[in-house]
Amino acid sequence: MRFIMEQKSQNRTGIVILAAGNSSRLGRPKQLLKFKESTLLKNTVLEALKVPNSFVIVVTGSNSNAIEKELELPEINFSFNPEWESGMSSSIVKGLGELLHINADCEQCIFAVCDQPFVTSLVFENLINEYYKTEKGIAASAYSETLGAPVLFHKKYFRELLELEGKEGAKKLIKKYADDVVEVPFEKGNIDIDTEEDYKELFR
């Protein structure tokens, strides 16, 4: 479904891709793992760029120079998070801050991670469509009996997102505001890459 319901062209959806971690369990940057004739991160970015009326921000941290060099896409914005070691919350804060700098009137934002190999533009579009259809403030991907990334937030949650600290992620708000959440199925959303075994399993 290519049509983004009722979305005005000037109200673009920000898509923030969190790619700042050092992949400690993997032992090498997961962002740069070869996948689909490019890399894990680039695949996510290219799918995000297909979404109508959107703009893409990639939050980097560890290995930022190598990651930015590998992408080299003029359509995306980079935001370097010098505090990436403190946890995912710092990347959420950094990415959302950059989004509001680029488009202060942005009304919704999707946060995505870089290690879900089966994410597609349709996954992002389904979140946007369900958000408009249900008028819920949060549209979260549903897989393996949990809710997680990619996840869309209406601007009314931006302040609390900017106040996240340490290891806290967006799940804190998903749980806190469960009555304002629409669950959007994401087949294979549970598959992410944390270890060499995870990566090898992709090709079996």
TrEMBL record:
InterPro entries: MobA-like_NTP_Trfase, Nucleotide-diphossugar_trans. CDD domains: GT_2_like_f. The keyword DNA-binding does not apply. Keywords: Nucleotidyltransferase, Transferase. One of its GO terms (molecular function) is nucleotidyltransferase activity. Residues 16-179 form the MobA-like NTP transferase domain. PANTHER family: MOLYBDENUM COFACTOR CYTIDYLYLTRANSFERASE. This is Molybdenum cofactor cytidylyltransferase. It comes from Flavobacterium cutihirudinis.
